Amino acid sequence: MRLFTKLTSTLFSTSTSTSTLFLTLTLTLTLFLTFTSTLSAQEAFIAQDFEESVGDEWSYTAQPEELQRVILWGRMNQPVGNTIAQSGDWYWATWDLDNMEHSLVFDSVELPFGDVYTLHFWYYSANIDTQTDYVKYCLEYDDGTEWNNWQDLESNLTGWNQVSLDIPLTESQVRLKVSAQYDGFAKYVHFDNFVINNEPAPLTAPIISNITAEQANDGSKLVDIYYDLFDANNDPCDIELLISDDNGVSYSFTPDSANLSGHIGSDITPGNNKHIIWDAGNESQDFSAENYYFKIRAEDNTFLQIVTPVISPESETYDEAQTITITCETEDAEIYYTLDGSDPDQTDNLYTEAFELDETTTVKARAYKEDWQESEIATADYVINSDFVLVEGGTYNNETADVTISDFYMSKYEITHTKFIGFLNSYGVASNGSYNGVELIDMDDSDCAIGYSNGNFYFDGSSYATNAECPVIEVTWYGSAVYSNWLSSQEGLTPCYNTSTWTCNINANGYRLPTEMEWMYAAKGGNQEPATGYNQYAGTDVEAELTNYAWYSPNSGSTTHVVGTKLPNQLGLYDMSGNVWEWCNDWYGSYSSSAQTDPVGPATGSYRVRRGGGWSYDADRCRVALRGGSNPSYSNSDLGFRVTRAAE
Q1: Are the CB atoms for 149 and 136 separated by under 8 Å?
Q2: Which among 442, 22, 475, 432 has a CA at the least distance from the CA of 214?
Q3: Pairing of strands 355-357, 361-368
């Protein structure tokens, strides 16, 4: 933070007499500040609320002295004029002042530098005639006796009103006088709660003012320079004197420190009438020409910290790609950001415009500006579930009874080999596809499209899966459940499955397999049009149209296909009919004949439900109402899964 003052002078003319020094002062800030800080709550620096308590430190004089005769002028703890004290019990009350001026004069108060001060007081007025009466105040910034800066207060507000006055940063002393004059039994003016609050001053540049300069008349070629130095934070400053011999275009000459004395150099404390003595005649440069410019520069060695950037939108789980914006309140600050979780610096991405995120990402941002302290790091964590659809709840009939389903998220696509391999390589799964002795995927089956080599699982392909984006096959129910737990942990959610008992905490916020009734509701189209849902297939009730929505025996070529390559149903879910069967969370059992809300199936059983039909089945087996069941350790080339998560 730098502030300098120019002055123009004629120094050491060729005349033998001492030249006259002509001064032109220009005060210019070289730094424009935008600063945001969090200040502590204001505290009372000094106060007077007429309670005669230890907090009443601001002394005052009543003029005339406190009176209680026919008129009222003094402390009061009873109602006068339909009011009581603004707070506490006591206030300064007036009534029928006999048309004489009555005043409270508050002592001059010293205000230490480094804080911001605000003066507050409360007053009450009623029935004051603005033509003949008045209520006013005067605020002065010295310890004198004159009162010149009078300001009228509004009259007849019939209630307590607060006056708040910001005291300029440059003032170090304040005194206050309030006055009222009126006559009449139905008129009132009261005062209460005089207080000066203080809080730490925001970081500001130092100010140099009242500069004078004069060349000595004794031929010594000494120049006396005087100035006042103010710093709101009361920081000691470095004072520098620079000289220009080209009318202020540049300041190429710095006086030799040996030729300078007085209040120059480091750690100059703020104050008035600072004095620099410059032995100009002892400099190596000849100063016999005219119109030299002097620059006095003050530096308090405090660097403002840039406001922490704001990343929008806020950290959250989103179901579609997000447009990310980063802003900073500090003017002209440059923002740098990272997308890999590392702390950003000025070698990273410079933010110039909004950008898109379509996958789970941590964004970090920090702002920089020359001569400022860099900002704190802003962080936003985004979970982008662009592969998920919100299935809004509703009620439907499962051909036996009405079922009500709450909102939930379901993956748009069946889980692919790519996603499942990512899980296998990060979860400590054994090379044979088992975890803690439980088979997650049948690596020994020739239909399995996943291989293992050199410590890593990889897509190997098979006759039933020729692309890594085909749905994973040969996966067991256990493999589907453990994958769900892994995905939950990846996103900081609570896993649903206990891998010792294989029970599911349906209320956890993590991923799990859909319940059978959730699956059927979503396959029918949920609460989307048509209102009753499609009862035959996912996306249509017309068998001839099924080829547009499903890979099944008439069009599959006896293999799985890349997910999402047929039309979705009206919820945006792909392959709910065909491609591969899908594991559900429930044990296989009979439907309840009674209406239910969010049913989870039988508590125990021998088989887990699978739904949807697959590439090797005809249209009848792809119906949304068709049920199947298999042992949870079963796997096949036409069996996969998708996952769901409760909507919070």
Answers
A1: no
A2: 22
A3: unpaired
Q: Whole-prediction pTM value?
A: 0.50
Report angle CA 482, 485, 488 to the nearest 5 degrees: 150
Per-residue pLDDT reduced to its tens digit, 372-418: 889 999 999 998 877 899 999 999 999 999 999 999 999 999 999 99
What gap in Å lies between CA 459 and CA 456, rounded to an integer?
10
State the maximum Cα–Cα separation within the chain, in Å, rounded to a whole number. 120
φ/ψ of 112, rounded to 5, equals -60, 140
Q: What pLDDT is attached to residue 320?
A: 79
Low-confidence ranges of the chain (pLDDT < 50): 1-41
Any idea of the CA torsion for 543, 546, 547, 552, to the nearest 10 degrees?
A: -100
Q: Cα–Cα distance between 443 and 456 in angstroms, integer?
A: 13
CB proximity list for 420: less than 8 A, separation 6 or greater = 441, 450, 472, 475, 479, 483
Identify the CA nearest to 453 among candidates 477, 476, 421.
421
Calpha distance 317→381 (Å, rounded): 9
Cβ neighbours for 65, distance < 8 A, ≥ 6 positions apart: none
Torsion 80-83-89-95 (CA) sign: negative
106 burial level (CB within 10 Å; 0-12, 13-18, 19+) = buried
Dihedral angle computed from the Cα positions of residues 131, 137, 143 and 147, in that order, rounded to the nearest 10 degrees: -10
